[in-house]
Amino acid sequence: MNNTLHSLILVGVMAVVIALTRFLPFLIFPEGRKRPKVITYLGTVLPYAIIGMLVVYCFKGVNVLAYPFGIPEALAGLLVAGLHIWKRNTLISVFSGVAFYMVLVQLVFRT
Amino acid sequence: MLKNTFKRAFRDSLPIMAGYLALGVGFGVLLESKGYSPLWALLMSCTMFAGSGQYAGVDFLASGASILTTAVMTLIINARHFFYGFSLLDKYRGTGAMKPYLIFGLTDETYSVVCTAKLDDDIDRKKYYLFLTSLDHLYWITGCVLGAVLGAVLPFSGKGIDFAMTALFIVIMVEQWLSTKNHISAILGASVTLICLLIFGADYFIIPSMTLIAVGLVLFRKKLDKTGSGDETEVKPDE
After folding, report:
1. Domain residue extents for chain A
2. Residue ranges making up the domain that contains B190
3. Average per-residue pLDDT in chain B?
4. How far is C-alpha A83 from the geometric centre of its chain's CA atoms?
5. Same domain, B137 and B200
6. How far is CA B108 from CA A106, B1, B24, B113, in A?
């Protein structure tokens, strides 16, 4: 373990930087201040683009060129999407997908 | 009303509970393996409340990274959060004393649920945001500390349980897809990010993705904008 003081400082730095990324939009446009229309527009369309970004972000560690070629992720992802289109129940979709994925990576595609 | 609000927030938080406990335990185990006590897991999960940020943080701590490296890398990893506030300027307006905490707790998962949750009239919106954010934070802290305490002696294999996060985002994407006709934004977000991932690699694709998404959305404004024309938004005092 490294120097405790240095570690404490690093945790502080990380906490401040992370908070900054979350607070910045609210600091730039505080309550009551007029904001450019394009910002309001971005606020309404960004959630859709961001979820698309986050789905890809979740698969960033997948290597399709090496065993198991992303097959567990693809199968479980399709199951979640299919179940959700069918039942529209978040808990059923998420927990079935997780259970299926765990079976795949622990029992079927063992590495 | 308060009871309904809490029940709704709790129900919406269940998928996040599974994911946060799993990812939190993973973080705690990793941190403990580098010789840091559970107190550090408590400190980091309370003050940072960020998955990928904390995982990277373990490396910075263990390698004794410089303050500058730590600040810049943390900024790169968490830059995506910069986008979230823009969609919530109005939703979080007027939340008063709880507002700083709501913003502090704006994780990927809380953000996604807050953006998509359709709340009925029997739900107190502000309290709903507060309950959801606090519950998520509580799950995260619990997972992180538990992982550091248990270390490597977990009685069962939790391998793969972190897929809860991926599944939650897929569900939200399907939900958004079925509830809107115009899919330009969703397709743009996913395809731009995928292309950036292939070009820039897993460590550096987020900031280029964000930039291109913002540019792309502005270019598609005529097709997507339903907020009308003009240059400034009048901020109406609500309530």
Report:
1. 1-29
2. 180-224
3. 88
4. 20
5. no
6. 27, 27, 15, 9
B174 within some domain: no
Q: Which of residues 118-137 of B touch A (CB under 8 A)?
A: none
Residues B125 and B48 occupy one common structural domain:
yes
Q: Is residue B44 located within the same domain as residue B95?
A: yes
B93 and B190: one domain? no
Q: Which of A14, A45, A54 sits opposite B224 (nearest CB)?
A: A45
**Per residue in B212-230, pLDDT tens?**
999 999 999 988 876 544 4
* Residue showing tokens 């303050």: B67
Listed in sequence order, the residues at least 6 apart from B224 whose beta carbon sits closer than 8 Å to its beta carbon are A41, A45, B182, B184, B185, B217
Are the C-beta atoms of B168 and B112 separated by less than 8 Å? Answer: yes
Q: Any CB–CB contact under 8 A between A106 and chain B?
A: yes
Q: Do B234 and A35 touch (CB under 8 A)?
A: no
Q: Is the pTM of this model over 0.95?
A: no
* Residue B42 shares a structural domain with residue B158: yes
pLDDT tens, residue by residue, B34-48: 889 999 999 999 999
Partner B contacted by A65 (CB < 8 A): no
ipTM attached to this prediction:
0.89
User: Would B173 be classed as within a structural domain?
Assistant: no
Return the DSSP state at B96.
G
Q: Pseudo-torsion of CA B200, B204, B207, B213, nearest 10°?
A: 40
What's the mean pLDDT in B57-72?
90
For residue B104, tell me if it sits in a domain.
yes
